[in-house]
Design a protein that fits this description.
Blueprint (H helix, E strand, L loop, with lengths): L6 H18 L44 H4 L96 H4 L27 E2 L15 E2 L16 H6 L8 H4 L19 E2 H4 L33 E2 L47
Antiparallel strand pairs: 1-2, 3-4
Length: 359
Amino acid sequence: MKTQKTIKQVLTVVGATFLILAAGNALAAISGTSCVECHTMHNSQDNASMQFDSGAAPAASLLRAATCSGCHAIPGRANSPTEPIPQVDGQNYGTDTLAGGSFFFVNSADANAHNVIDFGAAEDTALGLTPPGWDNTLDGAVNTEASWTQQLTCSGTYGCHGTHDTVDTFGAISGAHHQPGDIDGTTVGNSYRFLDGIMGLESPDWELVPSTTNHNVYKGVARTQANNASDKSTISFLCAQCHGKFHTAADIDNTAGPNQMSSPWLRHPTDIDLRAVGGEYAAYTFNVEAPAALSTMPADIASADYSSEAIVTCISCHRAHGSPYADLLRWDYDGMSAGTTGDAAGTGCFRCHTTKDGI
């Protein structure tokens, strides 16, 4: 009989396969890897557990991990150019951080990360279960409950990834890891980062070492209506499914009519094209610290052109998973000071608000 493989052996084999795939496909489907590297038929080999954490109970989908964190938060593993599986709980921010940030920071403060139960986070003590800005009446809301009854999960009805028609986190992404990865939004597996229906292009190393030629390309759309739900493939629409009040014209725009959409704002706007607004915003230069989006996906990352449009989205300012900064921000908001000529000049907020600092 085949003897049980150690975690190190398993990840070494998986790693070699993923690296080959990642070079040719940003959203690489698992292919060419022995099924046993991820699955176990009975969770038993030589009377020993086949779970990565040696757990006695079998896991859904015959997987060798009982939760998403079992593969994406392996103790002691950090993201590196040779790490095949994105690790989303790294504590070395800036050296092993991926585009979405890290769930590690939920241990620092509730405001620093989404309190996803799959990563051991407790319920947010200030917010409870219901996401801030939740509106169950908006087009695209993930469910129609007046309030939420379950803590955030990675996927499913109460999560971001996969479909929202089941609370089963594995069921919501079932089969996605084996789909070809042609990002057209038609299936979970063919959606950006398994975010059902969302479009985008993914950095081959998940933005571990981002640059002007190696970065994610996010889908956006310039705002034209009250809740801007006409295009359900944008990254901001994903966020609006839970934080809808932060996206509707009635809640962010101070002008009359849903199509006015101009300053003065009641909340910071999303889905605004900086090029169309003009003024100081026309000086925006694409930077991974404050990434803008495009309405049409280019053929590849190298072809991304922000000279004619640069659309502000939620993740232009926030990390989806978490960060060392309050409100999951990409930078220290407390360090943003108008007229500064210090280290913060030209960074953070000033990437778009180009005339507000001292440069």
